[in-house]
Amino acid sequence: MAVAARAQWKGYVRLGEVTVPVALYTATSTSERISFHTVNRETGNRVRRQFVDSVTGKTVEKEDQVKGFEIDKDRYVVLAPEEVASAVPESDKTLRVQAFITCDDIDKVYFDRPYYLTPDRLGMDAYTLLRDGMRKANVAGIAQTVLFRRMRTVLLRPHGNGLIATTLNFDYEVRSAEEAFKDIPEIKIEGEMLDLAKHIIGMKRGTFSADEFDDRYEAALAELIKAKLEGKTLPKRAPPKVSTPNELLEALRQSAGVPAAPEPKRRAGKTGASRTKTARSTAGKAKTKAGAKRASSPQRRAS
C-alpha cells in the first residue's frame, strides 16, 4: 500500500545536538475495509445521528455541546472546548531521543500504532546516520513528544530503508496480565501429550509473511453482499468442535499423524458354532443323566 500523500505530523528527531527534520505517515489504514452505513429498515434511507438531552429529549446542537466529567450520579464538572484545549501540552514538534534499548526490552503489549518516519530532503544525511547507527548497534530509540494533542512515548526502529515510529501505551492503559490470567488453574501436562504437542509445533514452524494471510471476515462480508444482491443466502456454518479433556490425547495423535493406540486385547470367546455344539453336548449329558435316574428309581425296579 502506498504511503498517504499527506503527512500526519511534521517535526524533528533530536539526538544530542543533531536535529533531523522528519514527517510522520500512518503505516496502517482501514480505508480498504468494507464499511456500512446505518439505514432505516422500513424506508431504506440512511439514518442521521443526533445528540439529544437525556431528560428533555430535545436535540442539542454542536455549539451547545461541552465536555463533562461525572463526579456523582447526574453531576458533572463541565469543561468548555477552550478549557480542554488549555490542558494540551505545548509542542515544539520535536521527538527527543532519551535512550537506546533493545526491542526485547519492551513487552509488545505496550505497542500502540506504527507510523513511517521519513526524512526531509535537507536532513537526508543525518537521517541516514541515525538509521544506520541504530541498525549497526542493533538498538531502538525511545523518544517523547506531543502527537495529536497528547504527550506520547515513541519507539524508533530501523525498517527497510527508513524508520518506523511506534507509539507506546502508557502503563495505566495496559491491563495487568496477572489480573487477566488469575482464574487459569495450574495444570501439569507431561508424557505423551506434551511430546505430541512439541512435535506438532515443530511441524508447523515457519516464517511470517503478511501476504500469505487473508482477512476471512472481509471476504465473508463480500460474499454475503454478493449473495444478497443475487437473491441468495449463505449456508450457516456449524461451530467448531472443542476438544474435551477425554478427547485431547486422540486429537493430538490425529494432528501429529500418529496411529491410534490399539485397543486392549480381550479374552477370546467361543464362536457361535462351538457354543451350539457345547449346548447340545450339555443337553445330551443332562438327558442321559435324567434317563439313568428314572431307570434307577424304586418304581422302575419294582416293575
TrEMBL record:
<protein>
    <recommendedName>
        <fullName>Non-homologous end joining protein Ku</fullName>
    </recommendedName>
</protein>
<dbReference type="InterPro" id="IPR006164">
    <property type="entry name" value="DNA_bd_Ku70/Ku80"/>
</dbReference>
<dbReference type="InterPro" id="IPR009187">
    <property type="entry name" value="Prok_Ku"/>
</dbReference>
<dbReference type="InterPro" id="IPR016194">
    <property type="entry name" value="SPOC-like_C_dom_sf"/>
</dbReference>
<feature type="region of interest" description="Disordered">
    <location>
        <begin position="251"/>
        <end position="303"/>
    </location>
</feature>
<dbReference type="Pfam" id="PF02735">
    <property type="entry name" value="Ku"/>
</dbReference>
<comment type="subunit">
    <text>Homodimer. Interacts with LigD.</text>
</comment>
<feature type="domain" description="Ku">
    <location>
        <begin position="57"/>
        <end position="186"/>
    </location>
</feature>
<keyword id="KW-0238">DNA-binding</keyword>
<comment type="similarity">
    <text>Belongs to the prokaryotic Ku family.</text>
</comment>
<keyword id="KW-0233">DNA recombination</keyword>
<keyword id="KW-0234">DNA repair</keyword>
<keyword id="KW-0227">DNA damage</keyword>
<comment type="function">
    <text>With LigD forms a non-homologous end joining (NHEJ) DNA repair enzyme, which repairs dsDNA breaks with reduced fidelity. Binds linear dsDNA with 5'- and 3'- overhangs but not closed circular dsDNA nor ssDNA. Recruits and stimulates the ligase activity of LigD.</text>
</comment>
<feature type="compositionally biased region" description="Low complexity">
    <location>
        <begin position="275"/>
        <end position="285"/>
    </location>
</feature>
